Amino acid sequence: MTLEHAHGRLVVWCSLLIGLLFELMPVPDVVMPFRPDWLLLIMIYWAMALPHRYNILTAFVIGTLLDVLLGAHLGIRSLAYSLVIYLIVINFQRLRTFPVLQQSVIIGLVLCCYHLIVFWVQFLLDRPPFSFELLLPALSGMILWRWIYWVLRRLRRRYKVK
């Protein structure tokens, strides 16, 4: 492995670490329902940009790590992350050709799927009540997608991540 490849991988894993820190960072109760899924958005970008390198296995490992750090039932987010990234990976060529505005709408739908999968599995385990507040992070993630896409694309081009 050359030094350039090592720098590329370091950039990706640092961005995922920053996303993990944003996931764990405490926020006020007023903002909590709108908290975007930072780690999933960053993982979606890397799965779209480099699907041969960052794919379902990476999503499973990151989801398991997030389950452990959040103290949730082990496997809920790893299952949801894996299914979402699978959807992204099998459609990455189509998604890359769409303008960023259309991508953000599709990303919003994918985030809704993620939250519904997480709710469904939690419903099977704990029977929590359904609330449409559950889908607010998908709305904020859809709005932030353009910014996340721009930042990560600049990083990818600057550091020649391949």
Contiguous low-pLDDT stretches (5 residues minimum) are none
The class by helix and strand makeup works out as: mainly alpha
**Number of helices in the DSSP assignment:** 7
Largest sheet: none
Please give a structural write-up.
The protein is mainly α and 162 residues long. The chain has one domain: Arp2/3 complex 21 kDa subunit ARPC3. It has helices spanning 3-24, 38-49, 56-70, 76-90, 92-97, 100-126, 136-158. Helix 1 (3-24) packs antiparallel against helix 2 (38-49). The longest helix has 27 residues, at 100-126. The mean pLDDT is 94. Involved in formation of the rod shape of the cell. May also contribute to regulation of formation of penicillin-binding proteins. It is found in: Cell inner membrane; Cell membrane. Belongs to the MreD family.
Write the layout of secondary structure elements.
Elements: H1 3-24, H2 38-49, H3 56-70, H4 76-90, H5 92-97, H6 100-126, H7 136-158
Helix pairs in contact: 1-2, 2-4, 2-7, 3-4, 4-6, 6-7
Question: Can you describe this structure in just a few lines?
Answer:
The chain is mainly α and 162 residues long.
How would you describe this structure in keywords?
7 helices; mainly alpha; Arp2/3 complex 21 kDa subunit ARPC3; 162 residues; single chain
